[in-house]
Design brief:
single chain, mainly alpha, 75% helix, 0% strand, globular
Length: 206
């Protein structure tokens, strides 16, 4: 590995690691959470699953790579579709397939960032929205049936917005900190690292 490649890999790990260090209890998986109602618990829920957290960070980074309308349309598409998925999850029992697709979303989004995929914003938003339905389904299946359901749902939408904003902000910070093509290289390396983690989640290794 060349010095530049090694440095890019180190920076990419720092990028993802820096975002994850902001997330309390990131190693927790969704099944088995102690779920309680209210906005605070909903707010924290997206931060407490590695797959959720990585996927939303990647949506933010991917949006930053695309720039322009993608900066707002990708996060908005994710949130809208996740709200729909949350309603479906609240009304329908969760299945193992939901967790598989969520892990797959980390692989696909990581690969999209790693390859710096050039596609129309509408297509990128559609792909992001498709995965968001499953993320929302997982959240919705844990919404308490009591009176705290609505604040809980609002909380997890807000938490998801924060994670995607962190992803976009990470790209902006890198852009100011690293000159030239190094920014793109670090973001692409971060996507590759995330995709590998996603494979681990998909296979049960991570």
């Amino acid at each position: 590995m060349t010095g530049n490649a090694s440095k890019a890999l180190t920076n990419s790990i720092r990028l993802l690691g820096g975002g994850l260090l902001m997330l309390p209890g990131v190693a927790l998986a969704h099944p088995g959470h102690d779920v309680a109602g209210g906005a605070v618990h909903g707010l924290m829920h997206p931060f407490t699953g590695l797959d959720h957290a990585l996927a939303m960070l990647l949506v933010g980074i991917f949006a930053y790579q695309r720039g322009g309308r993608a900066l707002w349309s990708l996060p908005l598409a994710f949130l809208a579709a996740m709200a729909v998925g949350g309603i479906l999850g609240f009304a329908t029992p969760a299945s193992a397939m939901v967790e598989v697709v969520i892990a797959l979303s980390v692989v696909v989004l990581g690969a999209a960032v790693a390859l710096n995929v050039k596609t129309q914003t509408a297509v990128a938003a559609a792909v992001v929205a498709l995965f968001a339905i499953f993320h929302g389904f997982a959240h919705g299946s844990e919404i308490p049936a009591a009176s705290g359901a609505l604040p809980y749902a609002g909380g997890f939408l807000l938490g998801s917005s924060i994670l995607m904003t962190i992803g976009i902000g990470s790209g902006a910070v890198l852009n100011n900190a690293i000159a030239g093509r190094g920014v793109a290289q670090v973001m692409r390396s971060a996507g590759a690292v995330a995709a590998i983690v996603g494979v681990g989640l998909l296979t049960g290794i991570a």
